Amino acid sequence: MTIISSRIPLIYTPKVLELFRNPKNLGKLDDTSVVAQAGSPACGDVISIYLKINDKEIIEKASFESYGCAANIAAASILTEMIKGKTLKEAWEITWEDVTKELGGLPAIKYHCSILAVGALKRAIRKYYAEIKKSLPPWIPKELSREEKQALEVEELIERMYKKFSG
Amino acid sequence: MSHIHELLKKHGKPPREVYFDHENSGWVPPEVVEEMLPFFNLKGYGHPAITNLPGWEAYEVVEMTRRLVMKVIGAKQEDDIVFTHSGTEANNLAIIGTALANRKKGKKIVISSIEHPSVIYPAQELEKMGFHIVMVPVDKEGFVDPEILNAIVDKETILVSIQMVNHEIGTIQELQELVKAAKDANPEVIFHTDAIDALGRIPIDVNKLGVDLLSLSSHKIHGPKGVGVLYIHEGIKLRPIIHGALSTQKLWPGVENVPALAGFRKAIELAFDNFEANVTHMRRLRDRLLYGILDSVEDVLVNGPVEDKRAPDNVNVSFLYVEGESLTVELSLRGIYVSSGSACTSRILEPSHVLLAIGRKHEEAHGSIMFKISRYHDEEDINYALSQIPNAVRRLRKFSPLVPKHKTQ
Q1: A109 touches chain B (CB under 8 A)
Q2: Contact B210, B189 (CB under 8 A)
Q3: Looking at the structure, do residues B50 and B82 belong to the same domain, yes or no?
């Protein structure tokens, strides 16, 4: 049975609208070190994060692709701005709440957009160490971070709903 | 804390605007507003159930609007028309009121899988009260098959509710045939149709259709918000679902919205004055917009039927690889106001049930955009829309990770 919630228009902050209109760091990177994705087409939200990482483990360039609502595009865009020039360790410490705050806030129903953006970033960082460096630094826990877990939950929820509707 | 003022400031007023969201609600022309204004403070501001001059004046409005509604749908007597305060209320009264008054005859209620939420949700409420709800499937254009309906309706069935015109994809049901199919299976069955999206688009004749109950709404025909209608054929039993005193109507208490009723009457007059010409005009613009989009944008799916089986005002397409909510914001910034069947706009994390019912995948439903043509649109409006839509879609596709690789080169 459908969960009914009240429906007010999505009241985006000027920052969200600005980034939707003029997103920064858009598209694939030519010299990507690592790329990771969060979300699923079925749920209407996908964020891909591209990172160019130098020898000192500093993010030289970051970019994104997005399929989703205005909040999704804005969250991915601002996150790529926030991590540029940061070390991977510093980037790892960014939470979805930090991204939401940077956007001047999001409607509660759109929190998952920040979660997916940070989830994609953390997946990229984990992948970089696991697949390229072949070992995880001590500051990356073996078990998934909050955002990685939540991204997974969103993806699984949609998978279940999709099965329900596809019979 | 709401940022609505900052949002509006940031959005700004686009130099050119075309409103295509008449499905959700529309603007009200000045002639209609003028008709309403005296009833706020010059006359008829009383209660239409009270015996004094302002009350009589108010009652005259209720009566005149009722007579015009009767005329345009072919109703025979004044008691057949109940005014509610919205189309949602009319549908709720039809579903719950009929079920409660006829529960001794049976517990089965049949609705189509693409009904408006104001039919589906009350039906779901009835399910909690022990009624049995069966949803008839639709084909990929949204049509209910009369044979399937005939097979589903049985002696236990007290009510069938099938929309005349679908609100999202514009499917015009073969309603007369569906009524016949249902009544052949059970002559006692009560047939309700939500005709809210049919009014002003296709002729409605309750006698020819053979329906027992029919819902209408003012704000879908450039009337003011706040008036719904339920037509009830003589002899059909309903129980009131809200209770109160002092009303001119037995089935719907609460003071009638007299200014809105005055406006609704004017809106009906305007829609029916040149009915054929209005419909022809809408249909022509509908096809210019639809085929214009198909000619200028790749990977677009048409949701619902085309040509004569589709409502003359409805265009609904899915732009693949983009998400509908971001496209509504993108188009809004360009002064084109539309809505989407995407999950992101629905607040319930599910895309439009109508699009899923006609077999669209989730990601196809997410990219859906609905345009509703009005008789007030002209060629220039369509030209402007067609000058913006391809660019809007292109911009969002440029950074969508879903665009297949061979299409990005």
Answers
A1: yes
A2: no
A3: yes
CATH number at residue B366: 3.90.1150.10
Torsion angle (degrees, nearest 10) of CA B61, B64, B67, B73: -70
- Domain coverage including residue A58: 14-165
Q: Does B24 touch chain A (CB under 8 A)?
A: no
Q: Which residues of chain A does B349 touch, with a Cβ-Cβ cutoff of 8 Å?
A: 3, 43, 157, 161
Active-site residue, selected from the candidate residues A43, A58, A152, A158: A43
One domain, residues B325 and B244: no
CA contacts within 13 A on the Cβ side of B226: 13
Which domain CATH number covers A161? 3.90.1010.10
**A69 annotated active-site:** no
- The domain that holds B169 is classified in CATH as 3.40.640.10
Tokens representing A164 are 């329900």
Q: With the C-alpha atoms ordered B267, B263, B195, B369, is the resulting torsion angle positive or negative?
A: positive
Q: How far is A138 from chain B (nearest CA, A)?
A: 32
B157 and B82 housed in the same domain = yes
- Partner residue facing A11 (CB), from B7, B330, B351: B7
Size of interface A-B (CB pairs under 8 A): 112
Q: Is residue A49 part of a domain?
A: yes
Find the domain containing B342 and state its range: 4-28+275-408
- Assess whether B205 and B102 both reside in one domain: yes
B3/A14 CB distance under 8 A? yes
Of A113, A10, A15, nearest in space to B328 by CA: A10
Residues of A (74-93) whose Cβ lies below 8 Å from B: none
The phi, psi pair for B348, rounded to 5°, reads -120, 15
Q: Do A67 and B329 touch (CB under 8 A)?
A: no
Along the 409 residues of chain B, how does pLDDT read in single tens digits? 467 888 899 999 999 999 999 888 889 999 999 999 999 999 999 999 999 999 999 999 999 999 999 999 999 999 999 999 999 999 999 999 999 999 999 999 999 999 999 999 999 999 999 999 999 999 999 999 999 999 999 999 999 999 999 999 999 999 999 999 999 999 999 999 999 999 999 999 999 999 999 999 999 999 999 999 999 999 999 999 999 876 789 899 999 999 999 999 999 999 999 999 999 999 999 999 999 999 999 999 999 999 999 999 999 999 999 999 999 999 999 999 999 887 665 555 578 999 999 999 988 999 999 999 999 999 999 999 999 999 999 999 999 999 988 886 5
Together in a domain, B282 and B260: no
| Interface contact B135, partner A, CB < 8 A | no
Q: How many domains does chain B have?
A: 2
Q: CA–CA separation, B262 vs B61, rounded Å? A: 6
Residue B145 sits in the same domain as residue B179 = yes
pTM of the model: 0.92
